[in-house]
Specification:
single chain, alpha+beta, Glutaredoxin, Small redox-active disulfide protein 2, THIRX-like_proc, Thioredoxin-like_sf, redox-active center
Length: 78
């Protein structure tokens, strides 16, 4: 079953790092996932997130305000 991954962030360096980590984990582990970058501040606010970047997996906020390790992202996706 495909996962829906959203990266909430306005394009800051941390947000870009998080996007890179998630893309690497998905491709390196052949995970069936759709990755969507959410940069619209109004949409980010709908998730009640005050610190970006944030990682949302299947509509659940898993990480806020930091860039996780590849291992941590892989654990969240499995």
């Amino acid at each position: 079953m495909s996962k829906t991954i959203k990266i909430l962030g306005t394009g800051c360096p941390k947000c870009q790092s998080l996007t890179g980590v998630v893309k690497d984990v998905v491709s390196e582990n052949n995970i069936d996932a759709t990755i969507e970058k959410v940069e619209d501040i109004m949409e980010i606010m709908r998730y009640n997130v005050m610190t970006t970047p944030a990682l949302v997996i299947d509509d659940v906020i898993t990480i806020k305000g930091r860039v996780p390790s590849k291992e941590e992202v892989l654990a969240l996706l499995n």
